[in-house]
Amino acid sequence: MIKIQLGELRNIAEGLNEILTKELPIKPAYWFGKLGKKVHKELAEFEENRVKLIKKYASKDDKGEFIVKDNKYEFEDKEAFNSEFIELAGTEIEIDFNPISIEQLGDAKITPVIMMALEKFMEETPC
Q: Which of 41, 82, 94, 112 might form a disulfide with 1, Cβ 3.0–4.6 angstroms?
């Protein structure tokens, strides 16, 4: 089991989306694919709860529409929203996954950004 915080899910999902476009040996490709399904499920639930917080705290106009300025929601109580969002993002979850050895990736070209996003799901090979 690998522990992560909900706030890390978006970066992990982006890293998985990128690594899954690479040509990988079959086993890591399979395991990263399975991990992708788990991460995207958790991310969908996290986003659903983020939207609930927006609906709870976002300011509305006379028509009941959310007020958005410069592509950002306006909030009646921004501190309360931020407090609850930080609490949600800091929630720790466990994902059932055995880390993949970097050695198993073979000659795949992986960027440092992907490596950073997926570091909890990969393990170094002793030099």
A: 94
Separation of alpha carbons 105 and 120, rounded Å: 15
Q: Where are the beta strands (DSSP E) in 6-98?
A: 68-69, 72-73, 92-95
Range of the domain at 50: 2-123
Q: Tell me, yes or no, if the pTM score tops 0.85.
A: no
Residue with tokens 């309360």, as numbered in its chain? 80
pLDDT at 124: 80
Mean per-residue pLDDT, 63-86 = 91
In this structure, the strands spanning 122-123 and 100-101 are parallel
Specify whether the CB–CB gap between 20 and 33 falls below 8 A.
yes
Count of structural domains, the chain? 1
Angle CA 24–38–106, to nearest 5: 15
